[in-house]
Amino acid sequence: MDVDEHGNKRVFQRLGASNDSGKQHKVCYHWRAGRCNKFPCPYLHRELPGPPPQQHQPFISNGSSSKRPNQGVHDDRSFSGARRSPNFNPTWGRVHGAGAGNRAQGSGGGNRVFRKIEKLCNYWLQGNCSYGEKCKFLHSWSVGDCFSSLTQLEGHQKVVSGIALPSGSDKLYTGSKDETVRIWDCQSGQCTGVVNLGGEVGCMISEGPWLFVGIPNVVKAWHTQNNTELSLSGPTGQVYALVVGNDLLFAGVQDGAILAWKFNAVSNCFEPAASLKGHTQSVITLVVGANRLYSGSMDRSIRVWNLENLQCLQTLTEHTSVVMSLLCWDQFLLSCSLDGTVKVWVATESGNLEVTYTHNEEQGVLYLCGMHDSEAKPVLLCSCNDNTVRVYDLPSFSERGKIFSREGIRAIQIGPGGLFFTGDGSGQVRVWNWSTEAAAPA
Fold first, then answer.
1. Are 164 and 173 spatial neighbours (Cβ–Cβ below 8 Å)?
2. Counting Cβ atoms within 10 Å, is residue 227 exposed (0-12), middle (13-18) or buried (19+)?
3. Beta-bridge mates of residue 230
4. pTM of the full predicted structure?
5. Coil, strand or helix: which one is 124?
6. H-helix or E-strand containing 32?
7. Whether the predicted pLDDT of 337 surpasses 90
């Protein structure tokens, strides 16, 4: 299978936000009126005041993943309405259409970096660009004033296909198609161990203290606190997706099946519970929300399963290429595909899902991740096939910035205190932090 048709998608987990700058910003008058056309705009495109100040937990100096808020395994795996008005009723794409009108091309005010051509300088990547600040290409891994790169973790030799932060642990785990899982110390940023698995890592998630890793024909399970190691047999081919819901572990497999296991505390093992059939090609992505399991496949469809009886309730066929990633947000389901679209689904009175909005990208879309920014506003990280991640305000889909990488980003994980992690096709893992500082006009 071509690497562009791989996926290891996990659900969004709610995260407490922080705001430690104490600086008062102005809200853009034109944005409030729905007609601001500046990017970047020197004023805020979000309302004030934000949440009470909290202290960041830097990855290098003070990162302890055991203190991550709202990372338990019993939530509903959606944005679940945290930090929003009880009357919240989003109108998707209401600002600048689908966000294309305010992509940074550098004609307006704002940070000088937006006037550069949005392409990484190859000489800068090699460390020998002689133009310096005068170079017309980017000498930065991102554009936008809402987040910044803290550090990069080097070691993997191939695609990073999973990033996990087990609760109760001060370690970051990364899995790769180089057949290894690397363990990183959250305080020093140093690699403290490498586990050779003998097979490409197709996906990786953590649930509580458990770490689950999908490789060909098996799911590996580690209890990171007592060092229990288990092998869950049953898959035929690569395991591309893992998710936990209703006390079951689900795995999306290359042969199109979705396998389920249930943990038996008496025997201290995972016992086979079910096999969900319906997809005709590999299951690439799984997500749980609203007592439903959603699965996306190479067969271009999304299937909706009842978590109680594991019956298929609906098959969605609006995408025209591989469904790469799924995300639950409030009462909505977001899906993305190599067809270059992000679709927003909402349940009708009959209970069936229908598309309420379609956002178009110029490239295939690889991965979706939802989180809250430093002011507790919802944003969408949208990884595309041109080695970029677009950062969008929700529900407007107005673009706030971009992240660049050597190769396409296949894994994004939310961390504590405004941190998030990205892993790309070259094996590089990068640590990012949301910032409350606005860019000064040039």
1. yes
2. exposed
3. 221
4. 0.76
5. helix
6. helix 29-32
7. yes
